[in-house]
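As promised in the previous annual report, we have extended the structural survey to additional targets. Below is the entry for Cytohesin 4.
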Amino acid sequence: MDVCHPDPAELSSGETEELQRIKWHRKQLLEDIQKLKDEIADVFAQIDCFETAEESRLAQKEKELCIGRKKFNMDPMKGIQYLIEHKLLAHNVQDIAQFLYKGEGLNKTAIGTYLGERDPLNLQVLQAFVDCHEFANLNLVQALSSRMGAFDLGFEG
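The corresponding structure token record, generated without further manual editing, is:
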């Protein structure tokens, strides 16, 4: 007698019923496994879709940031306004100062123009901008040199 595939004639009625139950459970388990495989495939498809959407969102944000930098370099006030309107920059002194301090893609003359405005907000941003610089252990000449390299006052010499 083959243990894996017994001859049905050699089985008792109880064994035959047990064999039928086992086959039915096996079929149910295989169906459940297939359902799980399908669900996993759906989850992976959703993850791929989410990653694509996230990449698209990040690309759009980077494009808007690039536009904001260009606008800033042409007209600093309009550039900051654009960045705030597009939620790329918070409308607070610290965020604006950090943006200018990092200066990624910004024209130093435009930074100097913005910081040189006499508007109260610009003066607060100027103070926060200065606070971003580390002057510890520098003599006066070194400190002024490092600070003047951060922006251009627009003086021709």
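DSSP finds six helices and no strands in the chain. The radius of gyration is 34 Å. These points will be discussed at the next consortium meeting with the crystallography subgroup.
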